[in-house]
Predict the 3D structure of the following.
Amino acid sequence: MYSNITELPDSIGNLKHLRYLDLSYTKITRLPDATFKLCNLQTLLLSYCKSFSELPKSIEKLVNLRHLDITGTALKEMPTQITKLQNLHSLSTFMVSKQSDGLKNKELIKLPHLEGKLSILKLQNVVDPMDAFEAKLKRREKIEELVLEWDSDDSQDSPTVKNILNMFHPSAKLQRLTINRYGGTSFPNWVGDSSFTNITFLCVSNCKGCLSLPPFGQLPSLKELSIQGMASVKLVGHEFYCNQAGSSSFHPFPSWEVLKFEDMRAWEQWRIPFKGEGIEFPFPSLKHLYLYNCPQLKGDMPDNLPSLRKVDILNCNHLEAKSSALKGIACIQKLNINQGEKDLLRAIENFSLDSLKRLRITDCSSLQS
């Protein structure tokens, strides 16, 4: 409704008792100096103000501010004075500065009450891994969602890069985790560790140097897993389910409902465990399987998927499905296939389609019936 607002009047400073100011989705580029007279302001929302490019040092005057949301703005830097807001409970975004006198990750320790979602961006500017360690994320039990993001996806692998991510070890009470454009060839041990019993959502994307995936199967509460743009991963195998073979049967992904593999251009083989390997029945709760743009993926689909309801397979031309592969899908409701997955089309004959509500087949020039 107010998206055309481009600036605030100086008279905003007269609202001495104002506690809540929502400017989200407006076209403002800056805040007038009068804004920082609002000493009682507790909530300042600037989310998706795409022209907003400067957060001034005067922000320190908002001594009672508890919630600051700058998601989706044009900010490139944050002033060090942000750490003087001792009452902050939610800070959507924390940008690490490249400048020697700019905002460093270790200064998060000065904001002891943070909770909810926290995105730490521009991690390519972290030089010393101890800066990450001093943020003490492992003690931040009220942070429920953490986003760790580098600006570039072509950073060179080095012990320092991996050690930086290792030092960002969050609290075991974390519920949602996203890692974007990490430049290492492997992940530190905490990623996928079974001690994270509360994680329900996990996304790793554009980590183009990583050669393998962490043991996500060990996360007992994980419901949704999204793997995107992992350009160097050729095999998804045992390491995906657990970090070592057990002598007794191990049931990975007990809560898993949504799996997305997207833009995995080098991925060739998905090795599904079988009985006798110490891993059994890997996908008991999977409801939605999404495979997009995996042009090199060969072999069979996973079989025995009793909970599967929705399947999207797009641009995976070499993927096959034997008559047994999808036989366990008794109640599929939505099916989306394209780009000539003719072997998968044949497998439709093995479906029990009584529950099918939506079928979409596109770009299948060889389809005859």
Helices lie at 129-133, 159-167, 342-347. DSSP finds three helices and 19 strands in the chain. The radius of gyration is 24 Å.
